[in-house]
Amino acid sequence: MEIWEAAYIAGIIDGEGSVSLTRMHESEHRRPCISIASTDKELLVYIQSLSGGAINNKKNYKPDKHKDSYTLTIKKKETVLSLLKLISPYLRVDKKRKRAQLILKKYDEVTPRNGKYNTELLKRKIAFEESFFSI
Questions:
Q1: Is the pLDDT of residue 114 over 80?
Q2: Integer distance in angstroms from the first to the last C-alpha of the chain?
Q3: In 3-state terms, what secondary structure has residue 85?
């Protein structure tokens, strides 16, 4: 990815996206996620070609009043982390930049590779999530 493409994606995320922690299943711990919502599918397809992820179509109940809307969601840990490394210097929205930096700095520290948490690591993981959502 070129520098200008990383800056462009950061601008799209600043305006129409989010940097968050999400659960795939209710019982599991949260993982980093980047999502971008738009009515312009071509834009999301372009970003997807650079970063990966999946595009979902939201059901349009009033097509006479609303355009179709789409969401690009990137959930694969390695993809999210590598994208955040590239775009975080260009994020301008303070909350999104701070969240991206916190994920890059702490997520791997509080997440065991095997997914098994001892008591101390679980406390650190919960504290990480609380500090993330307090931003």
A1: no
A2: 28
A3: helix
The structure's pTM equals 0.84
Say how far apart CA 73 and CA 67 lie, in whole Å. 19
Phi-psi region of 53 (alpha: psi -120 to 50; beta: other; left: phi over 0): left
Identity at 98, one-letter amino acid code: K
CA distance 131 to 135: 7
Q: Residue 10's closest CA among 42, 40, 50?
A: 50
Query: Which comes out higher in pLDDT, residue 126 or 63?
Result: 126
Q: What distances in angstroms separate CA 42 from CA 85, 121, 127, one per listed residue?
A: 24, 42, 39
Strand order from edge to edge, sheet including 69-74: 17-22, 31-38, 69-74, 54-58
CB atoms within 10 A of CB 58: 12
Give the C-alpha separation, 36 to 106, whole Å: 23
For residue 112 the two structure tokens come to: 């065991």
Q: How far apart are CA 32 and CA 84, in angstroms?
A: 10
